[in-house]
Amino acid sequence: MNKFSLDDLPVVTLSATAKLDEASFFDLMDKRIGPVISRVPGVAQVNLIGGQEREIQVSFDAAKLEANGLSVLQVQQAVLAANLDFPTGSVQTREQDILIRLAGKFKTIDELRNLVVKISATGGQVRLADVADVQDAQKDVEKLARVNNESSIALQVLKQSDANGVSVSEGVQAIVDRLQSEYASSGLQLTIANDASVYTLESADAVIHDLILAIILVAVVMLFFLHSIRNALIVMVAIPASLIATFIGMSLLGYSLNLMSLLGLSLVVGILVDDAIVVLENIYRHMEMGKNKVRAAFDATKEIGFTVTAITLVIVVVFIPIAISTGLVSDILREFCVTVALATVLSLLSSFTIVPLLSSRFGKLEHITGKSWFGKIILSFERGLNKFTDAITRILKWSLKYKKTTLLAVFVLLIASFSMIGAGFVGTDFFPKSDRGEFLVQIEMPKDVSIEQTNQMTQRAEAF
């Protein structure tokens, strides 16, 4: 069984090409380019796919080893002992501290061939070339990378578990431009083949647009139900006040504006005005009773405070247990749940402070006469709303009159709703299906097919 982590997926996949031979190109990517990209803040690992890695192949001749009284292990130990590179100390002066390093690694293939692996009793030297064939070759190719019908080396950039994917992507893109200019003489071209942050940014931008649209729609609905722009504005103040306070709380908790937190904000927009509407309506009810604005605001808030708090806490107690639980679901939904709970509690605070304050200063009873075009629209809406309310009232009266029938019908509907999941009418997914504008083609070949045949089949798929 394999444990899967979302952090195992690459944030950015780069495609690299250069005007170099295969071995030099792979050495450049492995020893120079890869380590530079891995030093970008937030990068955990850089994987290389494709290319032909240089390999020094030593093929022993069993007869020559036996004739010289050597074993493979003895020759191996001699090669390892001669190919060393380690610090040996330092020279300190008043101005500087110089590190001394013994560099004894092989630089050419001839140095390896001429390595003395044994000195006989008579003083004769047995070199590696005397007992083995040493060739500067390449490793067997196990993976190939092709981008835009061209062979290349792919670099998969994996981020750290606590790093921001968008920041890592921006850092990689910045370093790519610098690397291309530094290695322009080698003809190095680094192309971003896949960038996971593009979908993240587009999704976040779509959520922000939905958030703005939700605020506009809430304002329009408030205007129709509260009968005046003044009343609607008093309620609408609760949205930015709660959102700004939520941003402060998110910053203190170390959260960022990502898909989960933005989704929570877009969901909570409608909830933010609930408490403010209830409090404002009660304030105007007290004003209609003949009280002045200040007394009405105080009495109305005090009267309905416990009820509004209960309504708000019902929402909070649904999301907090998910946020404090453990596991993959909690890791995904924690910021979403905390954002919703935080914004909801802060909307309760604003409904007990900002709304009564504004109502006591700017509150005014509105009497719609229908003489203006705005008044005519509001009265027309009120007539339609009254008809709808009357219809709902008749249904409610019938339900209260026939209690047993109503309870039976509700119970049947409840059971039927659960059966819809079992019957397949309502599907279940751990992650919702989304359209990233991409598609993946998987080609299955027999197990004994060579890498060359697989490459040919892939090129046919590319051409198609």
Description:
- This protein is α+β, with helices and mostly antiparallel strands and 464 residues long.
- The protein has three domains: 6-54 and 141-196, Multidrug efflux transporter AcrB pore domain like (Alpha-Beta Plaits, 2-Layer Sandwich); 55-138, Multidrug efflux transporter AcrB TolC docking domain, DN and DC subdomains; 200-401, Multidrug efflux transporter AcrB transmembrane fold (Up-down Bundle).
- 59% of the residues lie in helices and 15% in strands.
- It has 16 helices and eleven strands.
- The protein has helices at 22-38, 62-67, 72-82, 109-113, 128-131, 165-182, 196-226, 229-236, 238-253, 259-272, 274-288, 293-323, 328-362, 373-401, 403-422, 451-463, and strands spanning 12-17, 43-49, 54-60, 84-92, 97-104, 116-119, 125-127, 132-138, 145-147, 150-159, 189-195.
- The strands form four sheets. Strands 1, 2, 9, 10 and 11 form a five-stranded antiparallel β-sheet that branches.
- The two termini are 36 Å apart.
- The model has no long low-confidence stretch (mean pLDDT 83).
